[in-house]
Specification:
heterotrimer; A alpha/beta (177); B alpha+beta (238); C alpha/beta (551); B: Ubiquitin-like (UB roll); Alpha-Beta Plaits; five-stranded mixed β-sheet; three-stranded antiparallel β-sheet; globular; C: 551 residues; alpha/beta; Glutaredoxin; Rossmann fold; Ubiquitin-like (UB roll); four-stranded mixed β-sheet; 14 strands; 42% helix
Chain lengths: 177, 238, 551
Amino acid sequence: MSKLKLATVWLDGCSGCHMSFLDMDERLLELAEIVDVVYSPLVDTKKFPDEVDITLVEGAVASVDDEKKIRKIRDHSKTLVAMGDCAITGNVPSMRNPIGPEAILDRAYIQNASAQAQIPCVVVPKLLRVVRPIHEFVKVDVFLPGCPPSADTFHTALTALINGGPLDIPALTRFGA
Amino acid sequence: MSQVESDVKTLVIDEQEVSAQAGQTILEVALENEIKIPTLCHLEGLSDVGACRLCLVEIKGNSKLLPACVTVVQEGMEVSTNSERLQKHRRTILELLFAERNHICSVCVSNGHCELQTLGQEQGLTHVRLPYRNPELGVDASHERFTVDHNRCILCTRCVRVCAEIEGAHVWDVMGRGINSVVITDLHEEWGKSTCTRCGKCVQVCPTGALFDKSKIGSDHPKYPDFLPYLNLMREAQ
Amino acid sequence: MTIEELEQIAKTARQEREKYDFEVNVCMDLACASQGAGELKDALVKAAEASGKKVCVRRTGCMGPCSHGPLVRVDPEETLYHHVKQADAAAIVGHLGNQPVAPLQCDLHEHFDKQVRVVLENAGYIDPEKIEDYIARDGYKALLTVLMEMTPGGVVHRVTESGLRGRGGGGYPTGLKWSTVAKAKGDLKYVVCNGDEGDPGAFMDRSVMEGDPHRVIEGMAIAAYAVGASKGFIYVRAEYPVAVSRLTTALREARRHGLLGNNISNTPFNFDVEIRLGAGAFVCGEETALIASIEGKRGTPKPRPPYPASSGLWGKPTLINNVETYANIAPIVRNGGKWFFNMGSERSKGTKVFALTGKIANTGLVEVPMGIKLREIIEVIGGGVPEGHKFKAVQTGGPSGGCIPEEMLDIGVSYDALLKMGSIMGSGGMIVMDDTSCMVNVARFFIEFCMTESCGKCIPCRAGTAQMYTLLTRISTGTGTMDDLAMLEELCATVKETSLCGLGQTAPNPVLSTLKYFRNEYLEHILHKRCRAGVCTMEGIGTELANEVTA
């Protein structure tokens, strides 16, 4: 039997979920026996593969770029997992929502700049006015809340997803866990 | 009414036969019998307002859902506290709360001690299907000891009640209406300039991180509202 | 004041009337007044003086067909003139005793013939600021009869026998409510009149309070006697300054004539009424919120039970009825419960006043027997939808009601029938809509109303209506999805079943009823981005770019 294809994606988040994923430590080796990590910030692939079995998405949708990515990822993933609070609730990235992106950009690129204060207009993707969770853009199959979800949570959830076993998420984790 | 009403009532809650004193509420009787009914605005020691709607229960023969915290038991009542219909409504109500203001659990002083967060988990909430409203709300840190962060307030009015009923100061109240309601101190003075007695009861009864003690940092901020029933008991004894 | 004295006043007032050959009644209700009825009346008075004829010019309350205003009725011929201008005064007075002024004559026979006037029997016939006018039309006779000849229990029995149900919207049997309050134990009881009419498109109560204030006071006094109360409150919204001033005058006059106060008519019965002003909160029409507001507290509702009948104002047994309910009491007492019971349909007795508005020829107040078909109200009495447009729906019951489509119009109006159709009787607002109305937009309008009028106490109503408004806005701007529609329906169920008071429990009705009868319109908005009425501009489509900010 060929190995399952696993991808992880990093949108607007702090990468903490990925760090927590790595905290599975030696269990990662067991995981590597049954899955191939085909796309991830942790590996070198640049292009999202055409067919992925399980995709874990960290981070909220905050920019035009994020939106494009999440739609593409959805199209090419069998199971889409929203990983962590940013992907599920917007969490810390969404704290800019009541204030608006202009104020945030001004703070970051003008007020706090020591030299050449200017808001970049090339390379950096355009921001969306409101940061939103990924399920407001695409259908999400599994929600794994937590900031970040613990390594144990990852392990239990992934094992269940890979083996198709029962998965009681509220028993494992919650918002802010 | 010629018939003398019995002081003891027997009823059925979730297929469990229980007895109660006349005048007790369904919630009180359920708690005595270790039947858990979720609540947010209710707090032992304060008057009940029936506002959070999480303790709604089904009563056989009544198509309306009734709040357990203010519904008095009746002889022969058959109460169901956890039907599928109730679970569905409870989850929707919790989603409404999470989407209403800016609840960012990960950065909240009450993370891990929050009644809203715990209830969300208990009711199996993994995400909120409703659009987040992202309102612009303030934080009042003018008080020397406490802070109010309106982003985390769920308008349970426990602070209003504890301040008026127990402390007797009535510093807190609600201003505005509907989705624009907000708790205020005095006539919308800054908390620090208000007639607050600095007793801190409101902070202890607040179910979320909306009211918190400035001396506590991070999420190490458990609250202890259990002093209320004891305080009431001692006051009555005097 | 004794019955003999009352009859003497009536007699004097009638004799006064007999001095005149003609009566020129000018409707001075809001709709007519806003079109210059005040100046018109002055002009008529001047013209009457100049003519040398024996003419009495009188201001009256609402005559009914507001869209025809300013209205003038000449008695004894009962000639009705419409769209009367100041300049027409001389002609009207000049034609008195001759042929009527043809161009001004208003033929609304069909409009009036189908109506039965009980509550509005005096409207248009008396000067609301003259107690003598009211007394001359049998006013306060019922109160004094009750005090002299009936026991409180007898009064309750008569009201019960009449089958009258609450006219504020809920339709709770009035007699049952009265007997509950009568039986409640308490040294002090209150009688409250709910005049916090807040439904968009409803103005029945205002017209009754402005046009015939004594009728409300008399109804309250009879109720107080029946339930054993000695103190009454009329809760009127401050947006009705004319009603407040008329009621104030009426209360003063009633006190002056000994019809309010201590030992009324030399009996041990004491009763007086105070006016309380509402500060513009729709929710204060809900009885527990209204009580809180009268007590000087924040106007938010409380869970019931306990009902006000056992624990109301300041914890005392309190009877709360709507303006129109009280307005029905005096005629019921005068004519007997059976008389009232014989009017109307099987389980809804008597008449109901409706405020007809919207896309209809004759807007205004109508009073019809219960059980009359909606179609008759709209097409015959209301004169139908104006030329060139097609009837689409009629909205009854305000923000708590629903939209009823064409195919339901042949059902008779009753509390139960309207409920079955997904609407409610409500206080009596009736808004007619034609093909220029978009039903999604209508639902959005009412949800916006409920959202801004929610008191904020309970979560489902506070946050649920706001979320419903967001979802409806998405649909009406062309960005809604089928998921949004499913979520909307789920929210309707939760808000309806879990809200604390009537406001929240009925707030989803406009959405539910439009979804039930006009689901196609929702689907067109979502799937085809099309609004058949052309109301929604779908401005949301293609605005994604506007949501992007350069960084």
